Amino acid sequence: AKPSPLRVIIAGAPASGKGTQCQLITQKYGLVHIAAGDLLRAEVAEGSENGKQAKEYMEKGLLVPDDIVVMMVRDRLSQPDSQQNGWLLDGYPRSSSQATALKKFGFHPNVFILLEVSDDIVVERVVGRRLDPVTGKIYHLKYSPPETEEIAARLTQRFDDTVDRVKLRLRTHRQNVDAVLSMYEDITIKVNGNVSKEDVFAQINNALTKLLD
Ligand code: AP5
């Protein structure tokens, strides 16, 4: 019988490199990338009622209430592609209530990857981050500069990527991470996220390869 597909959670401070690693993981493992922050930003861009409410919390660096986030993630996880190819959940769960909901809906990860990055690196990464609205690719002015002038000219910045807001986001992360970790202790892999994106990926790749064996 075909082995069941991988089910991965990736967690870490803001700008610890979750999205960057998810692009590398999906390229190699074909998992469906589900990022809570991206789903929320799509609602904000659409101008839906949920999006309007969510934006107020995101601007303050606070967790968006469960009544908006929990069902949104559950619906995406339940789609046939996630079930067939496996999933890579990015930035969810961020509280014990979200972890409990995930369990209740029957979604059980094989591994919980925690990216560990120091605070000063987080701030530097946030300030230099840019996004390509055409391809969705994540850049950094210093560490992953755009390949061409044309791409450079169209890059955008996220509304919550300022020094003040990242400090608030870091505080929210610190307040919640231990409660989430305690629910996944037996499947947690801690990864040093302070090194280059290739070196971070090597650690993750190693862990995922072992899991598949
Ligand atoms: P979300 O979008 O999830 O933001 P976040 O957790 O703050 O994480 P980021 O997306 O900022 O960073 P990342 O870790 O993906 O880093 P990246 O790879 O881009 O959430 C935003 C908001 O939505 C939250 O504040 C909250 O309000 C709400 N929200 C989200 N999920 C929620 C939930 N479950 N419940 C309630 N509310 C929720 O990298 C950052 C930069 O560094 C890039 O420029 C990149 O090029 C560079 N970089 C990456 N890796 C390296 C490396 N190894 N070396 C050098 N540079 C690197």
From TrEMBL:
Top-level taxonomic group: Eukaryota
Keywords associated with the record: ATP-binding, Chloroplast, Kinase, Nucleotide-binding, Plastid, Transferase
Localization terms from the record: Plastid, Chloroplast
EC annotation from Swiss-Prot or TrEMBL: 2.7.4.3
Main location: plastid
GO MF annotations, alphabetized: AMP kinase activity; ATP binding
Record-level GO cellular component terms: chloroplast
Catalytically driven reaction(s): AMP + ATP = 2 ADP
The protein's enzyme class: transferase
Subunit structure as annotated in this protein's UniProt entry: Monomer.
Family of this protein: Belongs to the adenylate kinase family.
The protein's name: adenylate kinase
Organism whose genome encodes this protein: Cephalotus follicularis
Organismal lineage: Eukaryota, Viridiplantae, Streptophyta, Embryophyta, Tracheophyta
